[in-house]
Amino acid sequence: MCVKKRSVTADEDRRYLEMAIEESRKCRPVTTAYSVGAVIVTAAGEIYRGYTHETAPANHAEEEALAKALAAGAILRGASIYSSMEPCSIRKSKPKSCSELILEQGFSRVVYALEEPACFVDCHGRELLTGHGVEVVVLDVLADRVREINAHIINRYSHE
Question: How many Cα atoms sit within 13 Å of 136 on the Cβ side?
């Protein structure tokens, strides 16, 4: 099946990333995981949202949005995913990282605001994704919002 690539403007990227950041505010802050929100926009324009721990204690935001999209039968090849923070490249709680799941589903774009701080692991999501041909856009103009939402972790580790 041929999927037409959806043209996305900078304003749309910002709007969807702001949606993802708002999703992250729904997270109950814990010291063992970042509060992250994710929004998937398919090539057909369907939107699916999720946030860290929405349905299970080990689920990341990207997984939550992905589960909703797959349950709805969405075609994800060529889709974009907006995550408030860089998708993980290493998982301690599950066999596959969010970056690996994004690659498996054929996403063409990933947009995020903040590189994952090295509080838990040394993340290489951006490198993994771009190394497999995924377009990665970092809108770091929104990074301070994500840092603020995750201050309970970032501040704790920066003072140790």
Answer: 24
Residue 17 lies in a domain: no
Residues in the chain: 160
Alpha carbons 5 and 51: distance in angstroms, whole number = 26
pTM of the model: 0.90
Is 6 a member of any domain?
Answer: no
pLDDT digits (tens, 9 = 90+) for 70-97: 999 999 999 999 999 999 987 777 889 9
Assess if residue 132 is contained within a domain.
Answer: yes
pLDDT tens sequence across 12-47: 999 999 999 999 999 999 988 899 999 999 999 999
Q: Which residues are catalytic?
A: 62
Q: What number of helices (H) and strands (E) belong to the chain?
A: 6, 5
Give the bridge partners for 110, in sequence order: 81, 136
Residue 100 lies in a domain: yes
Beta pairing, strands 109-114 & 47-51: unpaired
Provide CB contacts within 8 A for 47, sequence distance 6+: 16, 39, 40, 41
